[in-house]
Automatic annotation (TrEMBL):
Pfam families: HLH. The keyword Transcription applies. This is BHLH domain-containing protein. Residues 30-67 are annotated as: Disordered.
Amino acid sequence: MSMPMHPSSYSGVDANNFLGSHPSSFGSFGHTPTALSGSVEDEGKPSADVLIEKRRRRRESHNAVERRRRDHINEKIHELSNLLPEFASDIQNKPNKGVILRRSVDYIRHMQLFAAKQMERTMELEGVLARLIVDRGIREEELGLSVPLGTAIELPTITGVNQEEEDMM
C-alpha cells in the first residue's frame, strides 16, 4: 500500500498520469486526461511554432545588436591604428587588434608624459620671462602675449563623444 501524498509533493508527478490513475479522479466528471491537456494548450500555452518563431526573432535581433557592436569596436580600433604614427604610413602590414590597443595605450602614456614635461617647461620659461620683465622694467602688455603670464594652462579634454557612443561600449 502506498502512502498518501501531501498536496505540496504533487509537483514532481505528471498530472495526466496522476489524474487517469485513480477511479475517483476527474474521469467521473466527463473529462479525460487528453481533453484536459488539449484545452490547457489552446487557452494558455502558445504553440511550438510560435515559440520557435519568437526565439528566432529574439536571436536575430540579438545577433544584429552584437554585429553592430563588433563593427563599431572594429571601426574604432582601425581609427586608432590610423592615429598611431607608426601605423599611419604602413598600410600593407595590418597589425592585429591587440597590438593596436597595446601600442595606443603606450602612445597615450608617452603623450601624457610629454605634455607634463611641456607644462613644466612652460612654467619654467614663464618664471624666467617674469624675472626679465621685472629686471628690465618692461610692462607685460608691451610683450603682446596672447595669454597673460601665470595663467593656468589646462590639458584639453575629450570632446565630441556623445553619450550614445559611450553607451555602446
